[in-house]
Amino acid sequence: MRAIDAGILICMECHELNRQVPDTDEQTCTRCGALVHARRPNSLMRTWALLVTAAILYIPANLLPIMTVSSLGKGEPSTIMSGVIQLVQHGMLPIAAVVFIASILVPTFKLVGIALLLFSVQRHQPLSARQRIIMYRFIEFIGRWSMLDIFVIAILVALVNFGRLASIEANLGAAAFSSVVILTMLAAVTFDPRLIWDNTESDDDHD
200: which residues sit within 8 A by CB, 6+ positions away? Predict the structure, then answer.
């Protein structure tokens, strides 16, 4: 049985359990006074909006140069993928693998994973609630690693600044990529995982 079936609402601010008051449009938490809702208002709409925006920005994030490395006054901008290729050519396979996974695979998986969650919840697709919640938790877990590439660039820009001798500059691709990461993290936050269980009728999902 779901908590909502028992007339219990959870406060998303302090996690206090509140008895649902019938015939009330706005109910406040008995502990902290915050508004409590059976489900986050417009959760699917907000998540779709953030996800679509992130998907649009994902294109320039991969096509635009993410940083420019200059040595002795010479240098050329590089995209995420060209940077991975350069690392492979220099024999830095472990670093190339980390950059590829953190900067390409993880954001792609988050975009596809959140879209699948939204589609399965809205269209009642044949995914069990257990499969959906595992996917949601995995998306939340890997989200923190998406900023690895940006952290590395920020550190390099701050440390490597020796004028014409050597310097590293962040480009527009870094801003677009940061926006993608932030938007996908917000999309995971605005999605209400309780919706996963609302349209599940299979008894196997509750074992």
Answer: 128, 129, 206
